[in-house]
């Protein structure tokens, strides 16, 4: 499901992501990319946002009981939030280690679980934050600035 709201110089997209919904996995991030292209967002920003959204979407599909991907665009930045109802992350520093994976065997059989999702999200973000509570879920917040002269944040 998608909600689009267009305010003055601001766009907002909300996608509900279902767990293990492989037939629709990737649709939200593809839709975000198409909307950003349609609205003339800078190509490098689109590339980075697409990577972040895809990785977030796949994490929700693979590891959680479902969640939301929220993308807000204004003149300065693209703000991305991935919120899930899932097991939560016990050790955030550990899961940020490139190559570390908690993927179950069935996910590996689909070709997922290389342990690069969260590091890819961080590497493509100007600001990247994770909050997680075991047994409740995770919130990932990412910002990609649209202006090259913006200073990188919590990366």
How do the helices and strands follow one another from N- to C-terminus?
EEHHEEHHHEE
Mean pLDDT: 90
Shape descriptor: globular
What are the segments in which pLDDT stays under 50 over at least 5 consecutive residues?
Answer: none
What is the number of beta strands?
Answer: 6
Strand order of the largest sheet: 1-2-3-4-6-5
**What portion of residues belong to β-strands?**
25-35%
- Amount of helix: 25-40%
Q: Using the coordinates above, name the CATH class.
A: Alpha Beta
Helical/strand content category: alpha+beta
Report the end-to-end length measured between terminal Cα atoms. 31 Å
* Gyration radius, in Å: 15 Å
The biggest beta sheet reads:
6 strands, antiparallel
CATH homologous superfamily assignment: Histidine kinase-like ATPase, C-terminal domain
For this structure, the CATH topology is Heat Shock Protein 90
